[in-house]
Design brief:
alpha/beta, globular, metal-binding, iron
């Protein structure tokens, strides 16, 4: 799980759910989701150069009744962490109802947004749903951010949204998400200075990855403004982040990012098997269910009408998980949504990496 949860939300619901999962996995040999990632919609109002989801001609939005049924099942199984992203989830008209429903059932609900919809009323209503964390995407200073996000008003709107949510920082965790590339170091240093005005705000870095999730292509980093930093400069930057209490990337994630930017082919050579599908689940905007979207090559026969509790007790699920153990599809890329869980869960990984040099 994310270091932010371990730092600030180590509580009885978290501990009991983790103990239950570890007993099920290590003693009974079965895994089920303690974390869930929901791609609520393909629709997006950004025009990011590093993501092509916004180009979809026939975008989907997760049907609410199917989402509620999935939330019920996840809650019954012991899910602790539920993250909603997109596309852009704030474009979904009934988002507040969905957030409120999820927050009533799952202890830690997280919303990711580009911050383009920044009305004060919407911010207050989202805070009132009871979610625990919101992440806003800001990638640097105004000119750089707008170039990446394809919106001339992108930075102004996102930063205004940050200010609005910062007024509620006593009610939820506020995090700034930033794309990290060899061309963004000076921009991200300037952004860190800007965040000094928001003492309750944390930040995390997402190494730019070529991945089916974003429907982007190799070489996309060359479309970014600026020049490539050297490996030494990248590593110095990552060391700065590791020493900053406001950064909520795990230390081992930042360490592995050094290997990624060096171009190492396998960033996780010590993990002979992948157990991600035993503790996580992903939901596509068409309501399809994936123990791992990448490992299943974005093709799932598990529909949103599936009884999830029944599925996770089935031989079919067990067979999928066993097959995914040998998957190596994300070993040379570094999407944060896969790597933070893989590096920090189960507890054997958390302990191993915590004591690694």
């Amino acid at each position: 799980m994310k270091e932010l949860i371990l730092k600030n939300h180590l509580n009885l619901p978290f501990i009991t759910r983790m103990l239950k999962w570890h007993f099920s996995y290590y003693i009974l040999g079965r895994g089920y989701p303690v974390s869930a990632g929901v791609y609520l919609t393909d629709t997006c109002n950004s025009r990011c150069i590093m993501c092509n989801l916004w180009k979809k001609k026939n975008p989907y939005t997760y049907p609410m009744e199917e989402q509620k049924a999935a939330i019920d099942a996840l809650s019954a199984m012991g899910c602790y962490y539920y993250s909603i992203s997109g596309g852009e989830p704030t474009l979904v008209k009934d988002l507040k109802e969905r957030l409120r429903y999820a927050s009533a059932k799952i202890p830690y609900v997280h919303l990711v947004t580009n911050g383009l919809l920044s009305e004060e009323k919407m911010v207050s209503e989202i805070v009132s749903t009871g979610i625990k964390e919101i992440s806003i995407s800001i990638d640097g200073t105004e000119k750089f951010h707008n170039a990446l996000r394809g919106r001339e008003d992108g930075f102004q709107k996102a930063f205004n949204t940050l200010k609005l949510y910062a007024a509620h920082s006593d009610k939820l965790q506020l995090t700034v998400n930033s794309i990290l590339t060899k061309r963004s170091l000076s921009e991200l240093r300037e952004l860190r200075k800007m965040l000094d005005d928001f003492p309750g705000v944390h930040y995390k870095y997402l190494p730019l990855s070529v991945h089916e999730l974003f429907q982007n292509d190799a070489g996309i980093d060359k479309a970014f403004p600026g020049n490539d930093a050297s490996i030494d400069e990248m590593e110095a930057f990552l060391n700065e982040a590791a020493a900053d209490d406001r950064n909520v990337n795990s230390k081992i994630f930042l360490k592995k990012a050094k290997l990624f930017f060096r171009g190492q082919e396998d960033i996780l050579p010590e993990q002979k098997q992948c157990v991600y599908s035993y503790h996580a689940v992903e939901f596509g905007p068409d309501a399809s269910v994936y123990p791992c979207r990448t490992g299943m090559n974005f093709a799932s026969e598990i529909s949103g009408k599936t009884d999830l509790k029944e599925f996770y007790s089935s031989a079919k699920c067990s067979n999928i998980q066993k097959e995914l153990k040998s998957c190596k599809r994300c070993r040379n890329t570094m999407p944060l949504c896969y790597y933070e869980p893989r590096l920090n869960f189960p507890i054997t990984n958390l302990v191993k990496y915590y004591f690694s040099k």
